[in-house]
Amino acid sequence: MADGKTTASARRPSGQRRADAQRNMDKILDAGLKLYSSRPGVSVAEVAEAAGVGRVTLYGHFPSRTELAKALMDRAFEETEAAWEGVDTSGPADAALARVVREQWHLMERNRNLRDNVIGDVSPQWLRARHDPILRRIEELITRGRDDGAFRTDLPVSWLVTSLYSLVHAASDEITAGRLTAAEAPEVLVASLRSLYRT
After folding, report:
1. Which keywords annotate this record (predicted)?
2. Under a CB-based contact definition with an 8 Å cutoff, are residues 68 and 32 in contact?
3. Structural domain of 150
4. Which of 77, 67, 69 is nearest to 110 (CA)?
5. 55 and 79 together in one domain
6. What does pTM read for this prediction?
7. At 189, which CATH number?
8. Half-sphere exposure of 73 toward its Cβ, with a 13 Å CA cutoff?
9. How many domains does the structure of the chain reveal?
């Protein structure tokens, strides 16, 4: 500084400054994920306030709304991918797929408002690519079902995966529009996928 003084931050050891920065990032991501998942139309200023940091601090870690959106989606998908590990996909593929939809719906529903908040900040291509780890698991399940004779083989696997992706987002849009309830959605999805996938 011009007067020869140092800030409190500068006087802290570099390790402590890094720890402080990581805590701030965690607070921002925790608050942002909670807010973005609660309702559409959340502002960056609201995230900063909920995290207990200033907007300058938030933008120091996430220079744009797009960077914040991507970080929040990454955090959400880390949780989704971890939750997948607990889903039983053994047995007949059609029954396993129904279990996946029913048991993972709470995360799909949590992510509905999150998607609405980030849709203007990230491209559809980026959003689809971020789903790839989960969609690859769906693809494996569909392939197994085709091999076992439970699922149709006259349509490409990629199309069946895309259909599930699209139907999940269509269900989210219908809930937002008030034409479907969150309680109804899992069974509507299961019935729709059963009709589409079966031979």
Report:
1. DNA-binding, Transcription, Transcription regulation
2. yes
3. 66-199
4. 77
5. no
6. 0.79
7. 1.10.357.10
8. 23
9. 2
